[in-house]
Amino acid sequence: MLEARLLSMLEAAKEEGLLRRVLAVEGRGRLIRVDGREVVNFASNDYLGLASDERVIKAMREAAIEEGASSTASRLICGDSAQLRSLEESLAALKHRPAALVFPSGYHANIAAITSLTRQGDFILSDQDNHASIIDACRLSRATTLIFRHNDAHHLDQLLSQTDSGSLRLVVTEGVFSTSGDICALEDIVAVVRRHNAVLMVDEAHSTGTLPPRGRGIEEFYNLVGCVDVGMGTLGKALGAHGGFICGSPALVNTLINYGRPGIYSTALPPPIAAAAAEAANLLLRNGETIVAKLQNNIKLLSAGLLERGLIKEEARTPIIPVEVGEERRTVAVREALFERGFLVAALRYPTVPRGAACLRISVSCLHTEQDLAELPIAIAKTLEETK
């Protein structure tokens, strides 16, 4: 019975152009080998190229020699490594907060924060384009979840007006949205949140390390440092390592230590990973303006080429640039044809995006050359023409 169900599910996904497979990849930099073929990597979230930075790798190697490969248990059982403590101090400084708490992944961090901070009778107001980890956290929470239209502060205001002002109202959005690359309308949302005395949580998985001037996130971008109550981020994107974190007040962090089940019941981040992430965070603290300027320049170069060919409608400001295709099977065909031309890009399909709204998601990195950025738009335009 089980096998028949599984095969039926896989066949249905294949028929709709939604079947996914995991690629065999060698290397993680600008050039990678996929199934034995060398391609330019436009799918990675390693926006700043720190995953292959010699200083980050050295920090990881030294910690592995000193502390071993694993933390061996949850932090409440075996305690914290010096590397993990150092990482949390660096993250708190990076995000202008007194405290930070690291989790095994960004997914864990969102689940821990949202389920720990809300209870039955509370309200969660979530942007309709929020990441799957936020959606799942809302489902796991006992609070009532209300969805506001994407980046629409007016609709958020209307929904908050319908809630009980005596309950905790948690507003959750993203700094940079993971599928569209849109930047959160933070100024408008903060005004609404403050008017209703609500609590604001921002997922900064894709805004940390990518937004000017120094890569410290959405608050710095808008010059609104301190406006977010619960800050979330990841270590596996711009910081080039692995894990997730929540930053905020000491009371927030201590609450998550005691009530955040994903952290309580998971093995803590290994010392080598923590050391690598700490080195990456410190590099961003010291040289953020220079590193982010390089990324932003690459974004402008690629964006100009895509605009010139009518592949996007407006200039991109973040390293996530979607190119609309529409039909799922055609999107997969375009991705595969681009692979044959020497480029790896992501094909986003349902349920990541709505049905019929499949797209190519291009991820820009500091590692890309001017030639890469000039050739990709040409390849996409040719491929779209050939797959009409």
Itemize the secondary structure elements and their pairings.
Elements: H1 2-15, E1 25-26, E2 31-34, E3 37-41, H2 54-67, H3 75-78, H4 82-94, E4 99-103, H5 106-117, E5 123-127, H6 132-140, E6 144-148, H7 153-161, E7 169-174, H8 186-195, E8 199-203, H9 218-222, E9 230-234, E10 244-248, H10 250-259, H11 261-264, H12 271-308, E11 320-326, H13 328-340, E12 343-344, E13 346-348, E14 358-363, H14 370-386
Parallel strand pairs: 3-12, 5-6, 5-7, 7-8, 8-9
Antiparallel strand pairs: 1-2, 2-3, 4-10, 9-10, 11-14, 13-14
Helix pairs in contact: 2-12, 4-12, 5-6, 7-8, 12-14
Sum up the overall morphology in one term.
globular
Query: What is the rounded Rg?
Result: 21 Å
Overall helicity? 40-55%
Low-confidence stretches: none
* Reported CATH architecture of the largest domain: 3-Layer(aba) Sandwich
Q: What this model shows, in words?
A:
- The protein is an alpha/beta fold.
- It has two domains: 18-47 and 319-386, Aspartate Aminotransferase, domain 1, CATH 3.90.1150.10; 53-285, Type I PLP-dependent aspartate aminotransferase-like (Major domain) (Aspartate Aminotransferase, domain 2, 3-Layer(aba) Sandwich), CATH 3.40.640.
- 44% of the residues lie in helices and 17% in strands.
- The chain has 14 helices and 14 strands.
- The chain has helices spanning 2-15, 54-67, 75-78, 82-94, 106-117, 132-140, 153-161, 186-195, 218-222, 250-259, 261-264, 271-308, 328-340, 370-386; strands at residues 25-26, 31-34, 37-41, 99-103, 123-127, 144-148, 169-174, 199-203, 230-234, 244-248, 320-326, 343-344, 346-348, 358-363.
- A seven-stranded mixed β-sheet has the order 4-10-9-8-7-5-6, sandwiched between helices.
- Strand 1 and strand 2 (31-34) form a beta hairpin.
- Helix 12 crosses helix 14 (370-386).
- The longest helix is centred in the C-terminal third of the chain and has 38 residues, at 271-308.
- The radius of gyration is 21 Å and the shape is globular.
- The two termini are 40 Å apart.
